[in-house]
Amino acid sequence: MNTRKRKTCAFTLAEVLVVVTIISIAAAVVVPRLLHAGTFSVQAAGRCVIADIIFAQNDAVAHQKTRKIIFDTANNAYRLTDENDETLAAGWIGGGAYVISFANDPRFNGVTLANVDFGGSTTIEFDDLGAPVIGGVLDVVGTETQYRITVAALTGRVTIEPVAGG
Fold it and tell me: Sign (positive/negative) of CA torsion 66, 69, 72, 77?
């Protein structure tokens, strides 16, 4: 006859309380950040604009031809063009036009392009060496935050920084 006692496994009340406390602290830190999801949209829009500026620079060098990005603040969009202002094709969207519309893209809900100034123009142009003809700035504005993207005149270096009070 086996008289061994059967051992049961369970959590103590103290262990459960520790786990609940840790989860509560984590939720208190994460949830407020998720409530400001508009910040994510404006950051995504800023990254998209920067990626497209860098793409235009690289494409100008690769093809040894002028590339332009024409910003249209009235329609909250921009497009990548060649030296004749013909919109380029974007292979990743089935060869369609290389046009980014913040108004029609749900990823950029509530984001607008503002204060576009490249030497008094809303167009930035890169020569066949990828250098901008003239530098400038543009703002990407969300419901709670605003970022300024700067393209340096001589080097074409692209930087982004939050705008105070934006």
Answer: positive
What φ, ψ does residue 8 adopt, rounded to 5°? Answer: -105, 145
Q: Sheet harboring 136-141: ordered strands across?
A: 112-117, 136-141, 146-151, 158-162
pLDDT for residue 1 is more than 80: no
State the Cα–Cα distance between residues 137 and 124, nearest whole angstrom: 10
- Which residues make beta-bridge pairs with 90? 96
- pTM for the model: 0.76
User: In sequence order, which residues have a C-beta less than 8 Å from that of residue 59 and are 6 or more positions away?
Assistant: 67, 80, 88
Q: State the average pLDDT over residues 116-124.
A: 95
Q: Decide if 156 contacts 61 (C-beta within 8 A).
A: no
Show me where the domains of the chain are located.
Answer: 38-162
Fold of 38-162: minor pseudopilin epsh fold (3.55.40)
Q: Which residues pair with 132 in a beta bridge?
A: 126
